[in-house]
Design brief:
Layout (H helix, E strand, L loop, with lengths): L5 H14 L4 H8 L3 H8 L7 H10 L5 E2 L5 H5 L7 E2 H11 L2
Antiparallel strand pairs: 1-2
Helix pairs in contact: 2-3, 2-4
Length: 98
């Protein structure tokens, strides 16, 4: 599913949760977030802490992949744009940060 807006993201979370037969409370517990946070995200909350978003995706056995030509290094290489794994970027940053 292509996600371009917070509403799209919320719909994707709701569909994934329902397809797994989970209630909002069960998802909240699995993701270590509050049920109200799940309610807000599913309703298209425009701002959300990235850590909680990633926890929620992991609880649904989903991951975040970013595609696009918005990265100059990839455009200059002449190679097709590759998917970017946000977790790899975060891990690399943690390894290089003091």
């Amino acid at each position: 599913m292509r996600v371009r807006t917070p509403v799209d993201f919320g719909l994707m979370i709701r569909r994934a949760r329902r397809s797994r037969g989970m209630t909002q409370q069960q998802l909240a517990r699995a993701a270590a977030v509050g049920r109200q946070w799940i309610v807000e995200i599913e309703a298209g909350k425009p701002r959300a802490e990235l850590g909680r978003v990633l926890q929620t995706l992991a609880a649904l056995d989903l991951s975040l992949t970013i595609h696009g030509d918005g990265i100059p290094e990839l455009r200059k290489s002449g190679k097709p744009t590759e998917a970017i794994d946000l977790q790899d970027i975060l891990d690399a940053h943690r390894r290089t940060s003091p």
